[in-house]
Amino acid sequence: MKADILLGLQWGDEGKGKMVDFLTPQYDVVARFQGGPNAGHTLEFGGQKYVLRSIPSGIFQGDKLNLIGNGVVLDPVLFQKEADELAEAGQDIRERLLISKKAHLILPTHRLLDKANEAAKGKAKIGTTGKGIGPAYTDKVSRNGLRIGDILDHFDDKYTAARNRHLDMIRALNDAAQANNGSPVSLDSLAELEDEWMKSIDYLRRFRLIDSEHFVNQSFAAGQSILCEGAQGSLLDVDFGSYPFVTSSNTICAGACTGLGLAPTRIGEVYGIFKAYCTRVGSGPFPTELFDETGTQIRAIGHEYGAVTGRERRCGWIDLVALRYTIMLNGVTQLIMMKSDVLDSFPVIKACTAYRINGTLTRDFPFSIDNDIEPVYEELPGWQTDLSHCTKQEDLPAAFCNYISFLERELATPIRIISVGPDREATIWRQ
What we know:
This protein has helices spanning 16-23, 76-88, 108-121, 133-141, 155-179, 190-204, 212-221, 254-260, 293-302, 320-330, 398-411; strands at 3-8, 29-32, 41-45, 48-52, 65-68, 73-74, 97-100, 104-105, 208-210, 226-229, 267-275, 278-280, 314-316, 318-319, 334-338, 348-357, 360-362, 373-381, 415-419, 427-429. By secondary structure, the protein is α/β, with parallel strands linked by helices. The strands form five sheets. It has a ten-stranded mixed sheet with strand order 9-7-5-2-10-1-11-15-19-20, with helices on both faces. Strands 14, 16, 17 and 18 form a four-stranded mixed sheet that branches. A two-stranded antiparallel sheet has the order 3-4.
């Protein structure tokens, strides 16, 4: 058996949650392999809207197992809130959700460290979500982290040592913030945060905590199929993204191997998901960003606000230079295009096919996109048709089909699935 992988090809927010939910009936197990609660996956069906932060998006398909893999960092408080919301919606996840003992914990002091780091950087801040993701991954890499398996044995001593180490770091960062005329992070709320966090640790102990790498490979041996779910997007990968404005994990296909204990030879199809345009949240370069009425219009029509933070997403035309790059990095075999319907009313659609950097034209994604980059656009006629009424490939207007053909030529990869609305049903398979 092979594991198929679904991941984002842009700066996140591509619509991975909907597509994992849509594809889950074909699989026995859905496994989340990296990221933390800064990644919100939005699903809509039956007139209801759900936002998942840590729990895999296959949880709504009742007969499927869902796994939080070792590459994930988990905040017990946010996890409990998410699980409680699902329980209120009639989803009993206790028997359907497995959690890796090797997944790392986000501590209350990690959240304070996140804020203290940003305050100390002053104007150079990255614009994190403040969820403690970066500090948790930093502890993991520096071999100071606490893992979920630690809550089963002498946990109080382990927690106290980590907490005290973090407090020393926060005090030093507060001094740096004050030197930069910034605001130091208050520790007054720590006791309250810890009380809530420890209660959520007790809640976490009620779940099936497993050695997930054995589970994954035993599932293969039993002939079961696995869909691996990524978080964020490939352009936020810590190695290959727009560094330093990136997340703290490997969001590309390789992250599924390290985040689940999955051998590279076990990878089957790689579904690369992208929007018909581009968005980005927070700071960082964005070559095709629009600062005009068109960008505002895309944001309004597409409801482009962060699922977790509520922040406005920056909007722009599709960037095919970046897409070719992430398709290459991930070995994408099939493409999925989301939010096609957002562009329904535009008479002209633009697509960036190359960059002009210091007068030189290139189709390759450069080392840094912080420099002055002029996107080179190709213009295509819009379809000016309401795609949300389309239910099969034959319903799609000719101008839209031409746009799809253009993208497939530029990206040298087939577009197999098209989303024409937020609901689970608003999805078209292409032959």
